[in-house]
Give the backbone structure.
Amino acid sequence: MNKLRISALMLLGLLTIAGLSLAPLPNVVAQESATPTATPTIVTPEDALRRAEEVAQSAQNALETVSRMLSFLEVAGAIAGIVLALATTVGAGAFVYISRRIQRTLKDAEQLRESSEQMLRTIEQRGERATRAATLLQIGVQQMMAHNMNAALQTFEEAHTLDPDNRAVNYYLGELYSQNNDPERAIPLLRTSADEFPQAEAALGYALRLQASRQNDPNLRNQLYAQAEQHFLRALERDKQARDINGASFWATLGGLYRRQGRLDDAIRAYEEASRVTPHSSYPLNNLAMLYLMKGDLEKASETFRRSLRIATRLVDGDPFDHWARFDLITAHAAMRNYDAAEAQFELLAESPPVVGALESFLSGLEALQKSAYGNTRTAQLIERVKALIDQQRGAQPAQDHS
């Protein structure tokens, strides 16, 4: 501060001297020139005083200017110092903060990278599993077409393990579980695909019908039957041509539900619809004939059994492994009193027996025939042979995990 004041005083002195040097002295002659000498201008004491006052005022103004400048510089310096100090402090804090944020961001970025890599590996694995499941799905369908149902079941189970969300796999596997009379495992699978495939919803109805038939509580049984009917009707509304994995119309499956409820007229109507959907199938005709027997219409029953016999014979000639057609053929022969032919067809069936669930459906038809006017000792003997075959197949099946 003292240095600044000394500098200001020195500047004031210089300005004063400069101002006095500019003022003309009395009796001083102008510089010589080539022109005649001018009359000297006399500076009166008033002028000198005035000039001195002007110079003093100028010096004062200069001093005030310098003071203001110095004050500004002092304040500016102080502010600059404070700003610099704050900048230094804030800068250090900001550096630490930014450094921490950068470290945290880098850590998050590393975690994101690791998570992304893991997700990518998971997606790749899922893609590989889904691709393999799709391949197994095709193989399973081919095995079903070849009537190798046990192999198809194992294939679909493996596909389901690889891709449990594959609705097509769930549908086929659920259908096979139902045909193995295992509705408890079929129902959850079929529920996952019922919204997408009308066939899956109808198959869900069939599985619920199977579950209902096991209930001792009549109220629970009727509730399950009602649920099954709703699924059948909704599926057939979506697709009137819907068929199961064996190619049978789901109208026929609905007819089976009505028959078990004693709704014979509804059952006949459903089987007739099934016959229109699958005119070259013996299955709805055989069931229609049984219904006519239950209603006491023997003539219509006989005529329908003959129709079923002709179609079933043609079907098994074209495909010896079509066990559903062979079931109808055996039943029709028994109904027409062709017992030797029925026994011969049963021998062919026993050479390559189907799964237990299919055999149980066949047994149900024979038992219904035995209770009708067409029942006799030979039919009863045939029923016993079917039961023995079912026991044989149960013993041959590997133990299933129901956990």
Q: What stands out?
A: The two ends are 95 Å apart (CA to CA). The first helix runs from residue 2 to 22.
